[in-house]
């Protein structure tokens, strides 16, 4: 079976494995009092071109939820897209970590939030105690349907949020894929565009089991560290998480891996451009194949039908280690089906 | 500096590293749908000699808190020792995961709970709505002061708990150290003695970043899996956690590592038996050295003064990879100080 | 100013005041150990024609949220209408009391849920740990737009819910208004139609500050009483709440008050049937007046514009004590505006 | 049966009943937008001689827990007495409202916290993420064993708390009893002594079902109002709660009722001064009667044995409406038993 189910089926990059192995020597103080953990703020600060506070956690769900729990009070609400991972795929983690805040949903093509739709949704809320109060905006970069926000788009949304005292969170489980797909800097796509806290995904793009939470405003870290500990998300042997985060940037795999995944996905998209159900942008390809073609492909290829039953849509995801020959095979099969 | 601060400063055992490396080949479905995760119940079931359900999480705090959250309702209380890790060192994680249940504390030498003290504390509770209700007992094996519970002792406590409808949790962050210190089986020390759920520590004894939660009664798993996911404790690339748990048992390091740590600690204890402030049992040594001796040792050795300021007590912990020469040096230094 | 803002601006019925005064003699044990509280199950059991467990709480929000908290686990979700009070007007109380469960929204005219829409929404959920699980259905009777569910409609929804293991909650803040609007019994509209727990509103219909939570299946009470206490919702001097709940049924004001409110509202609705934006059914009247007419009426009458700004819709609510002459005046004013 | 079980078995004072009846005329906007609720800040501000923000809630548990939830983060801990109501008698409400903060217990005679004991307990905490952080002090006035704190004593404790950034909460379920027992002002006993928020008890001392939460620093109200709403503690028909709080102060019953209760209790205490197990101070009398005498009295008098089984201690509480003849009878019976 050739797998295009998700980039989380990938293995760990050799650079990360090597860094882990290199760190596995001798004693290191626990709970982040090691030299690798100490280096995180500096290395990530250089990457983003601004002082940051960086914390390792064990999953994207933890990264997202701890960010929301830190910046949204229990009586607040997080504006996010109807198809957002935090709404659909985290089993209520945001509600758990915030002490019962709500997610308030905004629609939009490509799982992207448009400023007008955000404004319309914000118009529902009134500044009285009967309703929850908008306190955060969370957007996904790249989105759950493979789209990207430009720095200008992020800025437009952040401006709306900040004017209302809302913090801005970016779920960057596939941040690297979104970044390399544009000719912009990490700074332009985050803090310069108003992002307050970023879940910077490492796992899907070559990491093992550590994601980075990046706070661009140190004063907002506030109680994050206490919340991380009481969530069981402070790694005991911190070096093995920190070293993954360091190697991810320092080895350059954040870029190489993302570029490769995007390039492979572009090949798939190019095979049947007329069937694309989303404009192609990163490492996910969405196609309206129809149920018959989906069935035909399912023998050789592992992938997810998408959307409601009978939609005929399919999603193909490439990862940093998807074999080129698997893409060859998929393109060939798709080519035959659409010719 | 020679470190005896804790066993969590140790590196990862070669057997675990090898298993991780071996697993780092090709594609594996995410979130535990991989062959290593699939094997957990079988391998741990054989180890314990009974059917079990086993789940990997990223920290001991998560293992403990998710266990409590699954088996204790928000209006319940967990009876535990005053010095228990869940009370002292987890920043309120049990309260977070249970939705605000209480810990009710029982004293006792060696951080051990005696049946009479448990009964006395239980006598405080009344079956009315004004007070929280005893719903769980949590004991630590080995305890936070290095002591062990015998199977008979665990049974006596479990009997008291079960007669009142309370579940029994064992915090086994150092379970292997407690097990090899006795001539008993893993079964005798757990389910045969009434333990319902065990936090089976792997990290301190050679693992990297995965602990095992072992449910001895499958019907009690109930909502554990949903709670794990919404806590961000379901590993994305599950194989790298599962393989640690498998290698831990299959390679035999659970025993070899624990035996070595205990043996080294025994050497330290034997150097100054008259100064021991706790009977020696596992891989932790507690000594009433006095502040002057503590200061004298602090230049060369890293360790924690213990108890309240001015108590003059110190704790030395050996891990699976503590250098024998570090123990030589500590024994020599201690010998000089006490001669 | 003549008020049609809501039925919660009404005073307390004389029958309730008298009952409170009558109970204000001598000593009564606290926290519900009084003879009035003792009588609740019997009196409500007779009203509903089946054994029930009844509990007093201080607000409709508390009644709803404690019901949800008892029957929905933290990883569950409550299916409810987009315009439901629990979603819009309780500042996240359901999320607070459930420990962070979600509300999942279903649309529909009249703030009513149709079986087909419920089924469609249920189709979104998958039985895996990544998403919250449907565990409850909550419907409002009468709805937030004044509509009623017939027993057949409630049954159809309950059947869908129960087949999936979901409990059924009815928010009956205006249950009496919905009941007297139909030729059916309280039993037919609740437990015979599959309702598991009812928030039976007393306050809006003549009460002072006590609502009834009615469990039709005693085995589901489970942990409700502990949750009520720890929410600060167990009245200290329980008699003053219990006596309100008793007098509400025993004096017959539940019916008289509701009938009067409905009758007055019917007069308003009949004044301008062509402007009704919702079919008239209970004690709420919704009209598309247009902004000009709304402004014209606002000098003399207190009422809420409804829906989004510019919708031109207005809501008029009659209560048990709305002065007949206020209705005369409103009908006259409306008549002039629409002629 | 003559009752001395608690002051919560009392009826409602005529002054409160009259005020409720007087307010039961015509329409009043809901949720606190009525003229009685509007007057609360002014009337209580005059009573305390400083600007305050005052909120009505339905129970003492709600008053306490909402105060703690507002001022203590989830990773914080509230220092309080081992015998505090919030620890013993609220079924974990503080943990629920704070999102899982801990209570950390301090012993001391008379259920009073001494500065030295508070300091000693504070010495346990370390400013790292592994442990919860002291963020509040909660003291009870009068205490659960009838004792009072002088302004000097409150000040000494508040100073310790404030120096560490901790807020100070006073559980004043019997605040009036403590106030009239001393020749001090309400101001001296609260904000001038460093109290940040007071649960000002009304119910036990003549009220029906409303307690006052008094914030002395308006800036600390912060999110209290949202939390009150989402706890179902915002009264729908707010006038009936507000009017209780107003009448309590304006009629002077806060003083008359408390003085009477204290005076009656003093008569009981004076009957057998040698048997007092606590120095007498307010409206509670604690005596070491021995089990035989307790049994002898139990036929005619309703009261609670106190402390652990076999302690032989009993508690007698007088309320504002305890019949003088009941006290006559109890004094006579006690006199016979001890002669």
Write the layout of secondary structure elements.
The structure is a homotetramer of 339-residue chains.
Chain A: E1 2-3, H1 14-23, H2 35-48, E2 53-57, H3 60-71, E3 76-81, H4 85-88, H5 93-98, E4 102-106, H6 115-122, E5 133-140, H7 151-163, E6 167-172, H8 175-180, H9 186-189, E7 197-200, E8 211-215, H10 224-230, H11 239-250, H12 253-271, E9 284-288, H13 291-298, E10 301-302, E11 304-306, E12 313-317, H14 324-338
Parallel strand pairs in A: 1-10, 3-4, 3-5, 5-6, 6-7
Antiparallel strand pairs in A: 2-8, 7-8, 9-12, 11-12
Helix pairs in contact in A: 1-11, 2-11, 12-14
Characteristic key phrases:
homotetramer, alpha/beta, seven-stranded mixed sheet, 12 strands, 41% helix, 17% strand
Q: How would you describe what is shown here?
A:
The structure is a homotetramer of 339-residue chains. Chain A has 339 residues and is α/β, with parallel strands linked by helices. Chain A has helices spanning 14-23, 35-48, 60-71, 85-88, 93-98, 115-122, 151-163, 175-180, 186-189, 224-230, 239-250, 253-271, 291-298, 324-338; strands at 2-3, 53-57, 76-81, 102-106, 133-140, 167-172, 197-200, 211-215, 284-288, 301-302, 304-306, 313-317. In chain A, α1 packs across α11 and α2 packs parallel to α11 (239-250). The longest helix of chain A has 19 residues, at 253-271. Chains in contact: A-B, A-C, A-D, B-C, B-D, C-D. At the A-B interface, α1, α3, α5 and α10 of A face α1, α3, α5 and α10 of B.
